[in-house]
Structures are given as C-alpha cells and as structure tokens.
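Following up on my earlier thread - several people asked me to post the actual chain instead of describing it. Fair enough. Here it is, all 835 residues.
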Amino acid sequence: DIFRVKFNPYGAHLWSMSFGSTGGDQGVDVAVDNAGSIFVTGYFEDIVEFGGGALVSNGGRDIFVVKFSFDGTHMWSRSYGSSFGNDEGHGIAVDGAGNVIVGGEFGNTVNYGGFHLTSNGDSDIFLAKYDTFGTLDWAQSFGGLGWDSMEEVAAAASNNDIYLTGHFPNSIDLGGGALVSAGSEDIFLARYSPGGGHQWSKRFGDSAFDYGIGLAVDAAGNVTVTGSFMGTVNFGGGNFMAGGATTGFVASYTSGGNHRWSRMVGQSSGWDVATSNTDDVFVAGHLLGTADFGGGELTAVADTDVFIAWYDMDGNHKWSNRYGDSGNNAGFGIAVDLNGHPTITGETNGSVDFGGGSLGGAGGYDVFVAKFFGEIEIGALDDCANDRGKCALMVFVKHFLDGPPIPFNPPGPPVTRYSIWRAVGTLPMYPPDPIHSCPGPASASLAGTRSAASVPCDGWEKVADIPATAPEAPYMVPVPTTRDATPGDPAIHYFVVLAEDDQGGWHTSPPESISTTNDLGSAILAIEDVPNDNGRLVSITFARDSEDAGGAATPVLSYGIYRRDDPPPSISSPSTIAAKEPDPVHRIEGWTYVASAPAHGDPVYAVEAPTVGDSTISSGDYSSTFFVRAMTAAPTVFFDSPWYAGYSLDNLAPPMPTSFAYNAGTLSWDPSTAGDFGYFTVYGNAIADFTTAVVVDYTTAATMDVSLSPYAWYYVTATDFSGNEGPHASIATATGIAGTPNGYVLSVTNHPNPFNPSTAVKYTVPTTGAVNVSIYDARGSRIATLVDNPAHAAGAYSAEWNGRNDAGSTVSSGVYFARITHSAGTRSRKLVLLK
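Reply from S.P.:
Thanks for posting it. Predicted structure:
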C-alpha cells in the first residue's frame, strides 16, 4: 500500500495516512509547493481511493497523481494507464508558478487526459504538466525500441524550466535528435521549456550499466545529477574509470548544459540529490564497499550502508558520513530545510544508527526518516533549583569545531564562543522558525554567516555569551527567562545555542523549551470573584515568601498587591460601590498599588483587591493582572511573585421596577434607580405564569407600546450592564384575554435562574433563518450548543440546558451566558449555576 506521513521540523508526528487495495501500490516521489500542498506520484493496481473517489486501474499497474493540502486533505487526483502492462509515475516536481510536472514510464498506448501516447518499444518515457488545480496542460512521450526509464524530474524555480534524468538501452530521441547508447544502459540528462519544448539533451556512458537516478536544480538554475556507473564515463571533466564495480557519481551543469564539476565517489550509488538556499549540494545513497566522497575513505560496515555527502556550489567537499550496523541500508531520498539541515529517508532490513540510537528492523525492509542538525545540541534544560525564579540551567554539548579537528567532519574555522538565544514570547505555539537569518540572508547550510550577533533576529534575542574553552565535559550555563509559570500560565520559553567563529560563521542547535518557577518567593494561587457585590472586586489567595518565617535572614514585614495599569473594558460597568484604592497610591513601572496585608508567618494569605473592570455581558471577558510584593524593613529590598490574572463580576441585580401600569395598549413604570442599569425587558403570556412568558421587546425607556403584541399578562424586569436581571413586576390587562402577537423580537432568557441542575433557555426568533443558541463560560469559551438550525422558523421556543458541556461532562458551578445568534443580531443572557 501507499503511505504518507508528515512530521514537524523536529520529528514530531503530525499526521499519517495509507491508501491501497489488494494489489501492489507504491508512492514513488513527492513534492511540496510554497503553500505547503503535497503532490505524490507512483503506481497502483486494481483500485485506490485517495479521498476524491475510487481510481480504477485499466490493467496491470497504472500511474496516479494526487494533490493534498498542507493538513492532508485531498484536493484532486488523476490516474492513467494502458489496458495491460505496467505504467508508473517515477518523478514529480513543482515549478515556481505552482505548476506540477510528472514523469515516468509506460507501455503500449495510454490516453493521458486526451493526449494519446504510444510506446515505441518495451517501455517509453512520459512527461506531463498540470496547473495547481489539476488541469492537464500538455503531455508527451520519448523512447526507442528498448526499455527506457525516467527516474527523476526537477523544475527551476527561477524560470520554470524542466529537467529529466534516467537511462536507456538502445537509442532515444528526447526532442533534439537521437541519442545512441554505447552499451547496456546509458544516462540521459535533458532540459525543456515550461511549454515542453526541447532545450538540450545529453547522454553519458559506455558499454556497461550506467544510471541517472537523482536530480536537483539550484536557485541559479544549475542542475546536479547523481547515480552510478560501472565502466568508463566522461561527464564533461575527464574520464572516470570504475573498473567494473558499481560506482557513484555526482555531476553539475549550468542551465545551458555546460559541465561545471563532477566527482566519482567509489563503491556506491547515488539515489537522490538536493540543494540548499545557497546552492550547496547534498547527496544520499548506499555504500557498497569503500568510497571517498572527498573527506577520506568511508567503508561500509553492514552489507550496504547509507551515505550522505555535502558539497559546496563548486563541488568542494564539506562533509560526508556513512550509517549502518547490519543488513542492507540505503538512502533513497534527501531534502534540505531553510537552515541547510538535511533530512534523509530510505530503508533498512538490519539496523542503523544516525546518532540518536540504533534503529532495529521489525522484519523485512523498514522505512526510516532521519534529520541532521549541526553537531551541537542542548543536552538538558532544567529549572534552577531553590531559587527566586526566572532561571533555567542549560547543559549543552560542545560543537566538534570547539577544540582539535575531528577527521571527516566539516572543515571550518574553530569555534571561539557560544551565544544563547531565547525566543521572544512564551506562547504555547512557539518556538519561531529555527534561526536562519541573523539578521542577514538565510543560512547556507548546517552553518551560516551573520554580521551582527547582538541584533535580535527572526523572533529570537540573545541572552548569554560563553567563550569556547574546549572542555571535556559539556557546558553548564544558567539562562534567564522572562517570567515564571503560574497555575494559569505555563510560561514556556524556548532556547537555542549558536556556536560562533571569528569569521562570522555559526552553527545552531535544535530548540529546547523550559518553564521556570519561583521556589522561594510568594506565588498567587488563585484569583476569584467576590460574590454578592456590585463588581470590581476579587479575592487574591497567595502563598507566603520563604522569608516570612521565624529566623529569616531578611524578614518580610508585609505584602503589597500591585495591579497592572491596563485600559478598562470597552464598555465600563458603573458600580454603586466605589473601587477601593489605597491612600496614598504608589505607582511603579505601569503598576498600581491596590491592597496590602501584614506578614505573620501564615502559609497562605487572602486579600481583597479592586480590578480595573468587570467581565460583563456587554464587553465580554475582561481580566485584571496582579502580582504580590513581599516587603522588608529596607525600602529597596523586596521579593516579587510572578504575575497572575483573574476577573471580577457584578453579582447584584437591579431592583424590581415600580408603578407598573397598563393603559390602552401602553405599559409604563418608574425609571430604574440602579447605578449600573442597562435595560428593561418586557415579557407577555396568556396566563399568569412568568416562567413560560416570552419576550415582547427590550427598552431603556420606562414605557412601551404593546398594542401589536396583545397578552393577558405582562411582566417587566431591569437588567444591569453585567447581565444581572432583577425580579419581575406583573400586571393583567383589563380583559384578561390574550390576542395573537404581530411578531417576535430576537430574545433569549431562562428560568429558573439561578438553577440546579437544569434550566429552560427560552428564545424568540423574529424571522426564518439560521439560529444558534449556545452556552459560554465567563471567559467567552463555548461550553455547549443547544440549537444550531440553518433554517429556524420564526416564533417562541425553549431548549433545556442540563449543566453539561458538549462532551457530556458536568460543568462546575458559576456564571455562564446563553447567547442566541441570528441575522437580526445577537442577544445574551446571564445564567448562574449553583451546586
């Protein structure tokens, strides 16, 4: 079967899927565009379903091409094949405009989206181009009488030209005239325009077996090919003689097809090649015996080993290594990220260790994926023990250029210092992309060059410098965080280490994360609303400082509560109780001193403090932020806690409206005396029952014309800015007979309130349309959906909420909001669940 899997840059699994049926199905090549969309080609037998409907083989193996979005969602898929024989997709690439180029081999006749391609021999090469939406632009074929195979396709991002490589046994015309093989199999390399027009083509080989397998195009348009040969081959720079043994090669050409450089690399075969942002070349394959990639001989330990070789743009060797312990191991694919870090994939039927521990096979051939960073890594990152916080202890392994040179590792100037960088911010989704611009252009490879080490770059800031001393043991360095973790905030910080030389070069580690704690200082444990008040008041519970104890060296005498000077809510809630402000007000660095408590050795303290504003039904969630300062006899000696945020609520409803009267279709009552009055709600019912009454309308005036909404009974309530609805006043009409309402307003209410365990959420809908009625907590998070109807009829309705969330779990007691959404607008109702 075919599988596809996606990992994040540090190897964490994101998603994986498989496709196939009872036949032989294989994904052969994959490409990714700038939007993160994923393109795959290969072949299948029988039936395969990628998500857009079944693709059915015409016979034998058929070609498939499929596009997925960045998150794995199927976008489109295509299949092509003849009635018998094997048709296979071997290579896929995306050009700079987002077009998709696919190549492979086919036999007999294939209808390729309206282009009828017919093989001249056993198997011919096909090449096709699609736009990003899967529309076929063109398709063409090439081949002679033998079995011709295209192994890889690449597209230049700069001008969208197309390159092919593969091998052929007899002769082949790739569009520029016949190329004739010198023997068993020869290598071909060809370039085409975006429209499929032939630009140039070349062959390389002798009477032995010669294969072009991997291909890559760099930013300058240079093309590099890798593969193997067995006899004598001239790639343009002179003869290479293999002497009958399978021998790997790497050769680079200009966009015009002129030879740039080439290398013969001993008993090996190159399977894939990739280029970095600065046109360095990485090659992967398998090592059969002994090979010298330019840094000294490497000899396979297992039957075959994986190899990786790294060259600069001019073909100069920078680094190479082999990996394998037992069995057969091979690297079939390689890619390079923005930092120049290579990722390799392949297979093993034995065991292989890439540096992170031995990967043992589970039986047969297993797939592996390995990513390489610079040989510098953070070994440990721990919270500093028994301290006052904002401190982490980092242990990192020295870089291999920190000290005497190590054979076969990348050459370069010696590392003279390290710098430690911290991600700017502590959001859970950090870190930012790994450092690749500090602040200059993207790094060339596993290392880079930058001009100003002290300048923050790409979301990172430098926090420490350490001279390189080539120690035997790892480096151990304390590093600062910006704040400590609290119960409501993990405050995760990310760090990387850069190894630097005196020529501006650098090597970076993968990032590691840490949350720090204040072990000795006071810490806010909870911030809770003070109940049964008019708001703007919370109770702050905090743990004592370690110096608030007998025999302390620097005794704490008192605690001060500081509130951050944040802007008030967008709609402030006037309160009938004035906020408690200290006298005098002492302001420090954007914080206001709002409360205090004497220190007397208690393990836990509780203090009431004023907030900036309340969370209200009008303005939504609003939190105020506080910290605790433990103060000593010396004015300049104090110990601060991490900050912590909490919200306050107005819990007292306005009084019942007075002088409620009905006269000839008009209701009237006295204005509300509540200082935080928001609006009146008028209800109507055919019977004397407030619990089943429906909302007639809302108003801020002390009168309402209800002649178009005739009811036998009317009720009126007052609601404040925080959504607290007071008791109702009631009145019967003179006749006591209800008529038919002319219409409804958008409304939501509930009864009983407060409630336990359930409440009836009543709502009215003015016109037919989409209606959603949901329950939210005081912080604005959706808890439960009661109604979600795309075509809800007008009228009065009721839905029960049983105090459970959408998962069926019972929610805690507290304040919640019922919210109705309709094209006419949105209405909310404050609910109080008591337990």
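The first strand starts at residue 2 and ends at 7. That should answer part of your original question.
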